[in-house]
Design a protein that fits this description.
Helices cover 74% and strands 2% of the residues. The protein is built from 13 helices and two strands. The termini are far apart. The relative contact order is 0.09.
């Protein structure tokens, strides 16, 4: 056998090159890996929370019409509440007179008690309808809020209502009796305790509502924390300024000048501020 024949017999078989086969199961696995990527999931969730659901374009006139409607509903509710409280004003007046034990109330001018009942009915009616009025405010700003902001809306609404009620109760059962006891005891052996009914109710109603507003401090802190203007660490590190501010706030909000009333309100503001700071810290802000 010649060498050329040997080479012909040992020729290699032709190689059939095929494209690599990609299975459908492997494609699904790769797609699943991409979908399960934590970074992608976090990005999608963040995009969803920052989206305004049911966003509708409104003109300036439509916004004004919406605002007018919300104000109209609030006024109607306030008028109904005031009329209802005016019908039952005598029990409300007697209830507010309870902290002033041992004091004789005088009507120093014709019609003074009548105008006092109107003031009491107005304050009481607005108080009773304040949750509905706050609800109308929420409905007006709701379309412009993102999903993230809407998550905090209901807890803030409920907390604000509860804190306002707690402020009224704290004023009625703690601050008002303490202030009246101070004034009655101060002049007990010198003057007879006969007060103008108008002046008394101006004092009590203003003190109660100012205390209720002071109890909204944690709500303000929570809003500032959610928006990102102030962090919980900054709130806690500013305790010296808060201490000074609580003293000033107690002096401004209380219509009396006695140190006991101012100390009670200032102390309540400090406790509320610290509680609000820890709540902001709990939500990770």
């Amino acid at each position: 056998m010649t060498p050329s024949e040997d080479l012909n017999n040992n020729n290699l078989a032709p190689i059939n090159l095929k494209e690599p086969e990609i299975r459908a199961e492997k494609v699904r696995d790769i797609a699943a890996q991409d979908l399960d990527d934590p970074q992608n999931s976090e990005k999608e969730e963040d995009d969803y929370l920052n989206k305004v659901p049911d966003e509708v374009e409104m003109s300036i006139f439509e916004h004004l019409e919406e605002l007018r409607m919300r104000i109209f509903y609030s006024l109607i509710a306030a008028v109904v509440g005031i009329i209802g409280c005016f019908i039952l004003v005598k029990p409300i007046v007697k209830f507010l007179e309870i902290p002033a034990q041992g004091v004789k109330f005088l009507q120093l001018a014709p019609g003074e008690y009548f105008f006092v009942t109107i003031k009491v009915a107005a304050y009481s009616g607005i108080l009773l309808t304040s949750p509905f009025i706050l609800y109308q405010i929420v409905k007006f700003v709701l379309p412009g809020l993102t999903t993230r902001e809407r998550r905090f809306l209901r807890p803030i609404f409920l907390a604000s209502t509860v804190l306002f009620a707690l402020g009224l109760l704290f004023a009625y059962f703690a601050i008002v009796p303490a202030a009246l006891k101070f004034f009655i005891g101060y002049g007990l052996e010198v003057v007879e305790q006969a007060w103008s009914i108008e002046k008394y109710f101006e004092f009590v109603l203003l003190l109660m509502f100012s205390t209720a507003l002071a109890f909204q401090v944690p709500i303000l802190q929570l809003l500032l924390g959610i928006v990102g203007i102030v962090t919980s660490q900054q709130m806690l590190s500013s305790w010296k300024y808060v201490l000074l501010g609580s003293v000033v706030l107690g002096a401004v909000l209380t219509p009396s000048t006695d140190p006991l009333t101012q100390s009670l309100l200032g102390g309540a503001v400090i406790v509320l501020y610290l509680a609000g700071s820890f709540i902001v810290k709990l939500i990770g802000k």
